[in-house]
Amino acid sequence: MAAVTVCSRCGHELPEMPGGGPGWVKCTICDEVCAIGGAGAYDVPSNMGLPKRVELPKAAPDAANLREVARPRPPARFHPGPGYQDAEQAPAAKLAEPKDFDKMLATYALGLFRVRGWPCQDLPGYKAFIVRARIANPDCPSPDVCNVTISAARGVLTLETVVRALPPPPWTTLRETLNAINQCSGGSLFLMRECGVVVRYKLVPQATPEGRFHVDNILGALRQMNHDRRLALHVLHMAGQWSVFDARAVRRAFASPVVEPKPVPLSYLQDLAGFAGYYAVERDGILHLNKEICAPAECPIRMRLEDGVIRAWTVLAPEVTSKFCGERWEFVRKIMRHLTRSSNMKLTRSQASRLLEHLNVLNDTSALLRYLWTEDGLSAIATHTMLEPELSVEEFQLLTDALFRRTVNGPGHTTLALRNAV
Description:
Strands 3-4-5-6-8-7 form a 6-stranded antiparallel β-sheet, with helices on both faces. Strands 9-10-11-12-14-13 form a 6-stranded antiparallel β-sheet, with helices on both faces. The protein has a two-stranded antiparallel ribbon with strand order 1-2. It folds into 3 domains: 1-45, no CATH class; 101-253, Yope Regulator, Chain: A (2-Layer Sandwich), CATH 3.30.1460.10; 266-306 and 308-404, Yope Regulator, Chain: A, CATH 3.30.1460. The radius of gyration is 47 Å and the shape is elongated. The chain has 422 residues and is an alpha+beta fold. It contains 9 helices and 14 strands. Strand 3 (120-122) and strand 4 (128-135) form a beta hairpin.
């Protein structure tokens, strides 16, 4: 009986080669190729097409591991630092403030005029321009035409135009007339310059999302300034041509200081003062203001509302200490000392002229206030015409703070702070 050949790998019985000779046989179970009958000395034929042996892993991964390997790795998570806040919790970014606020105001006003088609001409510095304004005149069928210079300085927009040329000197009567006009005019201030008598109107910008100014504000300021200019023409002609000063004529000329006066009660100002944090009490149609509770006579600020014009003022005391130095105010201090020693509290004509000359220079450089010689003495006055929009709490506080800076609070004591004038 012939010997049986088995597979060297799995032990399965291998079939014999045809004819019983040596050769190579492939196992039907494990596909192992085995030698039969001493066929190991021979090479494996190259044309047998035997598959290459593949080494399998010891432990194949299960289905869950295969899915985990095929899944892409998630990106690395961002771990915020100690000062980081989520985008939803981070505060909104602040609006960028312009590098030159005055340039921004002038550019904004220039854009309003050009959008409406008014002829404008830029001036050097990009903070001022000239506009040729045509303003309706109710007393004449033809409109008033004038060149208005609009400029921005210290955060305030200023409108100016020349009223008339200067008469030959001396100008004592003209200075007295201008001092009286500035006590009765609306929001306009009249000044003396080398080019002539100038009327000026100032606008405080609004802090609103819609814009710093509205076109109605600027047009209303132009109408009010032209109204004051027309009212002052007659009395300025009397002072310039005839050297006549009549205070009653000035008051009659400015009987209606506002173009369209609005009936506003004094309680409106009292409410504004309360919202601004001031103590306000009304006596005989005058509102007395202070930063703390005190008697009305001790309140340094007075406020009155007449014919649509708000007038707030403080009387500057005649005492002038040595800390207010400068050649510019040397003569003013001498006049103040003279007033404290005299009983009639009156100035000579030359003293009054020189005092008003210094006050004219101060008014020309003032941003919000006007300095006038009144019956009560030297006074700092802030005015506001009740045009649209109405006076806001911020504007009210801005004007009153400018007046409070001119005084030192205390019972019956105020100081003349001309050196730091607004």
